[in-house]
Specification:
The complex is a heterodimer of chains A (473) and B (226). With 473 residues, chain A is α/β, with parallel strands linked by helices. Chain A is built from 15 helices and 15 strands. Chain A has helices spanning 25-33, 36-39, 78-88, 93-106, 122-134, 152-169, 205-211, 213-218, 297-304, 331-337, 354-364, 368-381, 397-409, 427-442, 454-460, and strands at 14-18, 62-65, 140-144, 172-176, 189-193, 199-203, 248-262, 268-282, 286-290, 312-316, 338-341, 415-419, 446-450, 463-468, 471-472. In chain A, the strands form three sheets. Chain A has a six-stranded mixed β-sheet with strand order 2-3-4-1-5-6, with helices on both faces. A six-stranded mixed β-sheet of chain A has the order 11-12-13-9-14-15, sandwiched between helices. A three-stranded antiparallel β-sheet of chain A has the order 8-7-10, with helices on one face. Chain A is globular, with a radius of gyration of 24 Å. Chain B has 226 residues and is mostly helical. Chain B is built from ten helices and no strands. In chain B, helix 3 runs parallel beside helix 5 and helix 6 (103-112) runs antiparallel to helix 7. Chain B is flat. Classes of the chains: A alpha/beta (473), B mainly alpha (226). The interface between A and B is large, with 80 and 61 residues.
Chain lengths: 473, 226
């Protein structure tokens, strides 16, 4: 991962760490936080000193915030969650609660201490995690892609909370983030790592960005002011449908989807995910469904794919379809018609090798020999041809996304459904995802995607539906 | 009433009926013994659906025991139904009381009152409150398989086989989740928290004594009624 890295950061310095996926940025943050060997295995040489001491000796001096806002949730109520670190530091009870209150105020969470953690939005959950870190009064704040899974409004919320805290407390800050906008104004130093994890540039943001702009862009970093990326150019023959179709391919009318569920304590909750939505997918068009988290966009895409059963309303696949509602279709019949890539591609893994993964749906739909003719070229086009024999679980997250996109298209579905396909992706993967969607569209596939990425909507979207609380606005 | 109880007395209500259940032998005796359980249900069931669902497996067991006792126990209906009432007596109080358990408070009490090792207790409670997420992951895995033509449908053999591979996928994704959680928790000083303090006390209230007495009653009532 990392090799012979030397880096020193002065107290109060604010650093943005950039570099390609796999350069070891997260590894470095974990090393500084003293949690490197918690969930990873490997050989470790060298040392990390924080204020001249091993970070293991002083828990709480260094705070680490991870990409997944829910990673640090440990309790059902927000007060208790923030208190977790202070309990570990063995603070007496009467000192814990004032520090909890102070930390919650610092990140601007206005709720009472017994507010349920599961009732928070993604941005609020990330601010809660920040509060949990701040309560321990750390001198150093390490942020590992803290906003990459959040939509732009929520990301700005989290950034503002960080900016405020750093300014008032004078903390040392190290941020890793593909999307530099918003962070460059906050830092006074940018450090760039290369693929091997060595420092290739180090200096004030303006100078580093000016001198290393092209290298950073080539690494997939979202350099501010570099203009928007273009969708990658993909051969239509690789992504077109097995059997061409025209017109409206899926039609959903008056969809209502209510979730009734209970927590482990038996509390009854009803969430209305969709509330009377009509939508359709047309051959050769890209439908973008947007909305804040919880607005129902992923649910709508699942309904359009016959993967979730609505409480009421109709979902039919025409013109070749029957009157049978889509959610009643057999799995193989569904796969002949459509493909779906979940937000976490890992959930779709079924095979032992990447090539088998790409051919899975083709085998289930008796199209294997047809799909084999383009599988290799498709893997090549998404940049993972060298991984054909690899185990899909053992490749990086970005590679898994590419593989699952190839696996979705190889058997030639007429409908392609994508759930947050660009979230947290570097610039290069972003181009590829947008390029695949556009090429499939141009080859006659009906594409539907749930996204909060407005750039993707503007770049490749043909139709746009904004959802708010389960209704089309 | 039960909402004011701490987790330890609730656990007693869940577990103590196990000592009373063996006494039940006939239908009449079983029904009289179940009377206090019915009272408990009347005052304490907060969610009928989830309580029944928690009892579901036990009810299946009760049914199959009734059938097998009838078949192999000389076709004696009284003994057969009595045996199934014994199972219901065993599980119903637990199904009711467990809906009041909260992971954090259970951890507080287990560590502060029973002096169980804090790291184990806290890790278990953190994992418990993420159970909902595991359900969501299972749903996503199922959807992805269905969309790819390899969904869990068809005959029972195929369903079981697909279910098994889905379980492997779920295991991998929950392992990743727990990896991320342990990094986040260790970054908050958990790695060195062999000893830690507790933000909230673990009091034993009058309501707990009442619940504990109810638990003891459930252990002895069937014996007294014999």
């Amino acid at each position: 991962m990392l090799r012979d890295l030397d880096l020193s950061i002065a107290p109060g310095e604010r650093v943005l760490l950039a570099g390609p996926s796999g350069a070891g940025k997260s590894t470095l943050l974990r090393a500084i936080a003293g949690v490197l060997l918690t969930a990873d295995v490997g050989d470790l040489a060298g040392e990390v000193r924080v204020d001249g001491a091993d970070p293991h000796e002083h828990p709480g001096r260094v705070a680490l915030l991870l990409q997944d806002p829910t990673a640090s949730l440990v309790a059902e109520r927000i007060g208790r969650d923030v208190a977790f670190g202070l309990e570990n530091l063995r603070l007496p009870r009467e000192q814990i609660w004032p520090q909890v209150a102070e930390a919650l105020t610092a990140v601007g969470l206005p709720y009472p201490l017994d507010h349920r953690t599961h009732a928070l939005s993604g941005g609020e959950t990330q601010r809660l995690a920040l509060a949990g870190a701040l309560a321990m009064r750390p001198g150093v704040l390490l942020l590992d892609e803290p906003t990459s899974m959040l939509d732009p409004g929520l990301a700005a919320e989290v950034r503002a909370a960080v900016a405020d805290v750093v300014r008032r407390r004078g903390s040392t800050l190290v941020v890793v983030e593909h999307r530099m906008e918003g962070w460059v104004d906050l830092v006074d130093r940018v450090v760039v790592l290369d693929e091997a994890g060595a420092v290739v540039a180090d200096g004030p943001p303006d100078r580093v960005l000016a001198e290393h702009r092209d290298a950073l862009l080539a690494q997939g970093v979202w350099v501010p002011g570099a203009g928007d990326p273009k969708p990658a150019d993909i051969d239509h023959a690789l992504v077109g449908p097995y059997q061409e179709a025209a017109g409206t391919l899926v039609e959903a009318t008056e969809i209502v989807l209510r979730h009734t569920w209970r927590t482990h304590t038996g509390e009854r909750r009803i969430t209305v995910a969709l509330d009377g939505v009509c939508e359709r997918l047309d051959a050769g068009r890209i439908l973008a469904v947007t909305g804040a988290s919880g607005a129902g966009k992923s649910t709508l895409v699942s309904v359009l794919g016959g993967l979730a059963r609505p409480t009421s309303g109709a979902v039919h696949a025409g013109p070749l379809g029957s009157d049978r509602p889509l959610w009643k279709w057999r799995s193989s019949a569904l796969a002949r018609r459509l493909a779906w890539v979940p937000q976490q591609p890992e959930h779709a893994i079924v095979a032992r090798t990447v090539l088998d993964e790409v051919l899975t749906a083709a085998r289930a739909t008796d199209r294997e020999s047809w799909a084999r003719r383009r599988a290799d070229a498709l893997l090549q086009a998404v940049g993972v041809a060298h991984l054909a024999a690899a185990n899909p679980y053992q490749v990086s997250g970005g590679e898994q996304r590419r593989i699952m996109l190839a696996a979705a298209l190889a058997h030639g579905p007429q409908v392609l459904l994508l759930d947050e396909p660009t979230v947290g992706q570097d610039r290069t993967t972003w181009s590829l995802v947008a390029g695949l969607a556009a090429a499939a569209r141009d080859a006659g596939v009906a594409v539907g995607m749930a996204t909060h990425d407005l750039l993707a909507v503007d770049t490749v979207g043909d139709r746009h539906t904004a959802l708010s609380h389960g209704r089309a606005r | 009433m039960m909402a004011r109880c701490g987790p330890l007395s609730l656990l007693l209500v869940c577990l103590l009926p196990a000592f009373g259940a063996p006494a039940i032998e006939s239908v009449e005796h079983g029904l009289w013994s179940l009377l206090p359980v019915a009272v408990l249900a009347a005052v304490a069931v907060r969610a009928v659906g989830i309580t029944l669902r928690r009892m579901a497996l036990g009810l299946v067991a009760a049914g199959s025991i009734a059938v097998s006792t009838w078949l192999y126990g000389g076709h004696d209906l009284d003994t057969a139904v009595g045996a199934s009432l014994r199972i219901i007596y065993l599980i119903a109080p637990g199904a009711i009381a467990s809906t009041y358990l909260e992971p954090s408070s259970l951890a507080d009490h287990l560590a502060q009152r029973l002096r169980l090792p804090p790291r184990v207790v806290v890790a278990a409670s953190a994992a418990l409150q993420r159970l909902d997420e595991v359900g969501e992951q299972w749903r996503q895995i199922g959807r992805a398989r269905r969309a790819r033509g390899v969904g869990a449908e068809g005959g029972p053999v195929r369903r079981v086989r697909v279910g098994a591979t889905m379980a492997v996928a779920l295991l991998v994704s929950t392992m990743r989740l727990s990896g991320r959680m342990s990094v986040a928790m260790d970054a908050r000083g958990f790695a060195r928290a062999q000893r830690r303090t507790w933000a909230e006390p673990a009091p034993w209230r009058p309501a707990d004594s009442v619940a504990a007495l109810a638990g003891v009653a459930l252990a002895v009532v069937p014996w007294l009624l014999r």
